[in-house]
Fold each of these.
Amino acid sequence: MHDACGVVGISLNETANGAAKSIYYSLYALQHRGQEAAGISVHDGKSIRTHRAMGLVSEVFDDAQIALLRGHVGIGHVRYATSGRSCIENSQPLLVKYKDGAIATAHNGNLVNSTQLREQLEEAGDIFYSTSDTEVIAHLFVKELLHYDLPEAARALMRKIVGSYSLVFLWGDTVLALRDPLGIKPLCIGEIDSGFMVASESVAIDTLNGKLVRDVKPGELIVIRNGEMKSYQLARSTRPAHCIFEYIYFARPDSIMDGRLIYDVRVNIGSNLAREHPACADTVTPIPDSGITLAVGYHQHSGISYRECLMKNRYIGRTFIMPDQNMRETAVRLKMNTIRPNIEGHKLILVDDSIVRGTTSRRIVNMVRKAGAQEVHVRIGSPPILAPCYLGIDMASRDELIAAHKTVAGVEAVIEADSLGYVSHEGLVDAVGIPKENLCMGCLTGLYPVPIPGEKCLAEQTRLSEYLD
Ligand code: AMP
């Protein structure tokens, strides 16, 4: 299971320069959303220049690269594969040239009808360079731009693509941002020194010392040119379907999404977890890093001491060579070590955000037991993950999801915990503060906000999108 991508678009007024540097810093702030590949496209006054490569932002760019990307407008992307293979062809921004110009595309999300759309395009003679759904979007958009003016072309595109999309385009010297009518993946607008930006999360705006203006609305198109911003509401749905997992795990705790600070949401989840699943223990401890804020909430509500018992090594890069089987224990310890004196003889409440396959919880319960824990009570800040995500998370298949096949008691036995408690759906929704009808909880319920072949999309959950004139 990997998280999806991060996108950014920046347009400074014409006298300003150095959009690439600002995009580069923003991508650093969004690195948690994808570590597989990174890229930046800028418009240098004549054409679009792109640099993208596999790796972390720090590995892909250096001063010389950034200096070559001259211009006051551009977009950027960090990628974790959700659709298409992990290879340079699928990295973004993806550039498509056509007779009237060129367009670079950066996408966070996943289309559920890209196979059909691609087949139709291929039958009509289109040739694809990558296997990602982003290229399908780019081809469709270019075709619409040949026939319609901008807002109409974007509306026509939205009518064809189904799924989640927070898109940022560089179209000549114009930045466009388009959010799907259900607002599944996040996208926000910021005001920065001499211009505007759009980004997956507000932390990118903070990094540039900018001001969060607001979220891009579901179904809205934002157009930024020469430091000026315009908005077109192209579609409206009966109900939005914001991804619940952004609140549980993906987004950084310092991001503000839909007016909510993610940190506060997670503290609330932890506190609801403590209310719903108390445990007789003396220490609350997180599985770092994603369990930290949840554990703070659990500690605040229960009054049980908060103490860190596990230390994560944050410097294990992608290039880390996995040791052979008999060094596996070393590898695990290298990534995460126990603070033995905080554990020995203690009854622990171990807090994490989610159990996917059960591997992490099981391994860590085992580690803290070896370090002398007397009891280990596992508490999870999401309800059981029962179903795959088709809308932007590269989650495990249904076969691999432990909660799809086992009861809570069954999972408890597999991870060898003394007790296991998941926050309830109500506890989670209450903590987020958005009505459940306005959230996508497909991975927790198996009910999706868009029709997906072989899956349930209950009538009452179906959000009809109306395309406004
Ligand atoms: P598992 O070991 O398969 O049960 O996965 C659960 C662990 O993966 C938890 O510690 C989560 O913090 C972490 N996790 C949850 N969602 C993701 C994701 N999308 N990408 C990477 N790790 C994740």
Amino acid sequence: MSSDSMRPVLLTGASGALGRILAAGLTRQGWTLRLTDIQPFPGPVPERAVFEFADLADVDGSRIRRLADGCGMILHFGGVSVERPFDEVIGPNIRGLYNIYEAARQTKARVLFASSNHTVGFHQRDEVLDVDCTFRPDGYYGLSKCYGELMGELYFAKHGIESVLVRIGSCFPEPRDARMLATWLSYDDLTSLVVCALKAENVGCIKIWGTSNNKRMTWWEDDDRGVIGWSPQSTADGYADALGGKTTGDDVVEAHQGGAYCRIDYARPE
Ligand code: 15L
């Protein structure tokens, strides 16, 4: 069942970079949002939105459940969003995921889970992957995103809770280096993806590569975007001349899709 624009949508991680883009973009398009984060919302809360603090890692997940009550969909952008030590990741990204999916189960909401390319970061850059490729996380953060995707699959198989699992590449205003010629996702394409996920009927549990229409460098193909009718309009291709040479010179970083995340604590003997 699609989420109608009369029902509120819960957005976690609302105070983060992508949360703020979505809060602004979705309310402009007429969606009513419940925003939540452990950090205060920077700047004025948009019209058609309310903000409430919540800690995803709370052992008692009742606050998230209350926030999700009556929502058609949970856009889950909260949690640790970069590589961090295990003890920092476990609360928000492991316990937090459980709280989100329990809230979805009890309220029958669809989940859009902001997963990451770091679920597959240790694949080589000369591979072209489809969404059912082997997980190769490049750190504890990427590993927590694998867990999130599997949580989505569990809750669909066992409870029929629908999920749109989006493996986001690099979502920034513009691509910043040669790697992002493959991984870039524009803010407009992110917003249109979320709107497609909100409007689609019966999605099941699907996986989508969250990148713009980058053709000059492509590592990822064959996903489920057709199920929600998403077609990204931006492309990093026009940045190829400016950024093609912007590499690090580090063998481990440049060999792998996850880039710099692969290098963190890397100790494998060559
Ligand atoms: C991510 O998953 C991060 O959230 C983001 O900050 C970037 O590092 C991005 O991946 C990337 O791989 O460029």
Amino acid sequence: MKSSAFSLLPLLAFVAAFAGGPLVLPEFYVTLLNYIGLYAIVALGLVLLTGVGGLTSFGQAAFVGLGAYTTAYLTTVHGVSPWLTLPAGFLVTAAVALSLGFITLRLSGHFLPLGTIAWGISLYYLFGNVSFLGGHTGITSIPALDFFGIELKSGREFYYLIWAALLVIVLATRNLLDSREGRAIRALKGGTLMAEAMGVDTPRSKIVIFTVAALYACLSGWLYAHLQRFVNPTPFSLTQGIEYLFMVVIGGVAHVWGAILGAGLITILKQWLQDWLPQVLGQSGNFEIVVFGLLMIFVLHRARDGLWPIILRMLPEHTDRPRVPEAEALPRRPVPAANAVLLDVKDATKRFGGLVANNKMNFNVRAGEVMALIGPNGAGKSTLFNGISGVDSLTSGEVTFCGERIEALAARHIARRGMSRTFQHVRLLPTMSVLENVAIGAHLRGRKNFIHAALRIERDEEARLLHEAALQIEHCGLREHMYDIASSLPLGKQRIVEIARALATDPCLLLLDEPAAGLRYREKRALADLLRRLRGEGMGILLVEHDMDFVMGLADRVVVMEFGEKLAEGLPAEVQSNPAVLDAYLGGVE
Ligand code: ADP
Ligand code: MG
């Protein structure tokens, strides 16, 4: 996320507009602002879902409909108080979102948006065809909201409720994003591989944002029903679902304020175009849709991140990225007994179709040793890392970690048991700071969930997680880069950030895939010192590295791989003088 998803200046403007708007504006503008507020609440759900989590939904309008129809039906048919129909709507929406989420969120790539279109259409037709919901005529005579004895009958009165709700949603969203759960959600966007390796339950994170976005939509629907006092299916159609997506894409899909900006722009523009285009063209019709389509294409070409980042550049420099707080250190895992076998790999085999990338690999790693895995490019080292760490499954073989068989476990369950890793192709979240990236590593060391985060009652734990991240950053010699954006670092240093992130999981076994690549001589020496110190503390380290001076000066034992098989194993000196190794790996000796 760009330097501020949320900053003070827009908040002040928001509050000023909120307080003064209805006092000075004519009725027409108050109505317009009401709609902007209603749309913005839905759009904020899309920021969470699409902008931050990377999951595109065309179906949000259907959830708005669930909120609206639940209250319409319960208040008019059963005489339930509107204040009780809101929690009822939340329950209905959560139930529908959870069931739809379990089915659709498994879909990958463009199948997910297609899935959302499918249920978006289904729910719309359901609203129109169920007789107790009034069919296409809908439900009328929905009661006005009664707010401590004041009937919210006019738009002017309703305005404060809508914009107060929006303010609450803005704050909750912002709190959620700035938390342990928020980092897990932001980690979804780069694919789930890294997040899972750091212990994030990614299916759960997806379900959470999907449900939260649906609940926002439901709230908007409930407000809408009591503002309009009647509902019919039209505003909950797929077209409206697409319009919500337009709003966030044009405003800035990854930004809390972008959603509000987009909702405002699209709503005002639509109003204006609906008045103006038919006059110009001399016939009536929904021509504004054509203009929106063109606008969308233009934005996707010229300002892919939407308009908010452009405005942000004009505002004074400001950042709300987390800083390192004072906090108590997190508890550590007990250090394994010296020399205990941490990892035991037996006959590990991995096939990619006809290619055997790992063939019956056998070796172990003990506590307090550096085991190096070397071999030419394509030997199968990274594949073996993936098999051991659960990032990919082995075709056959056994992996025992701390006395427990783990080859059938998912990466996040292996991470929880104390194994952590870095990736050969760096997997950092490029727009997040070094501190935030490393804090993802501490994910499993926190307990507080998204509700704690939204209410901001997890600050103690959050401080301890950030504190831990900062500690590991300092250990890795990156203190000066603590608040830098990860992508601004040279690649070599990004690899060290990955080591800090792995250390933040508090592992007893560390898997490092080419950590010294791209480092300068002095940086390599510092890295070797760090690894020696970790070894001294009892950590087991499995190291893939091409720099032979680095490997031979550091490793206690070496396994040499070629064509997926083990060619040799032994002390560095033995391996270095092994003729088979010299011949195959070093290309013969002089
Ligand atoms: P190393 O890390 O030792 O350089 P890798 O483990 O990356 O080697 O690759 C070993 C072999 O497996 C290579 O021939 C590579 O092309 C192949 N390979 C790796 N990943 C995949 C994959 N996902 N699908 C098919 N082949 C793969
Ligand atoms: Mg590799």
